[in-house]
Amino acid sequence: MASLFPKAVIQKINVFSISSDTTFNINQSGSTILVDVSSGNIIVTLPTPSDNSGAFFRFLVTSTSGGNTLTVTSSSSVVSEYAALAGDYLEIFSDGLSWHVIYGNKGDTAHFP
After folding, report:
1. Rg of the chain over CA atoms, in angstroms?
2. What is the pTM of this model?
3. What is the mean pLDDT of residues 1-24?
4. Residue ranges of the domains in the chain?
5. Where does residue 51 rank: exposed (0-12), middle (13-18), buried (19+ CB within 10 A)?
6. Does residue 100 contact residue 74 with C-beta atoms inside 8 Å?
């Protein structure tokens, strides 16, 4: 008997774990970044948004300590900065002109820009 579901290509998402300041390039767009801020504040630098329309990154805070911050920057602008808690999540998207937080949750509260 033939399967009801044809075989499909499984798409895998790149996952990176970071615990210190990190710079990402456009080839890492679409990645999920697991962020451990338990050792201190972390600054993440994204590629320039120009010519990168449609690029996006997801950040999930996995471990924290006493008010350490996660700062997401690009070029000379700050995209997002806050005291990170385990479970915090950000999804950031480029429209080709700038980066935008298109979804985020802070603890149990969802935030939409």
Report:
1. 16
2. 0.80
3. 77
4. 15-111
5. exposed
6. no
CATH number of 15-111: 2.60.120
- Distance, in Å, from the CA atom of 68 to the CA atom of 32, rounded to the nearest integer, reads 20
**Mean pLDDT score across all residues of the chain:** 83
CA dihedral (43, 83, 87, 54) positive or negative: negative
- Dihedrals φ, ψ of 28, to 5°? -95, 5
Average pLDDT in the 70-98 region?
A: 86
As a three-state string, the secondary structure of 5-31 is CCCCCCCCCCEEEECCCEECCHHHCCC
Q: Is the pLDDT of residue 103 over 90?
A: no
Q: For position 112, what pLDDT does the model report?
A: 42
- Distance CA(26)–CA(47), nearest Å, equals 6
Structure tokens at 50: 């120009």
Instruction: Read off the tokens for 67.
Output: 């008010």
Closest CA to 44 of 25, 77, 72: 72
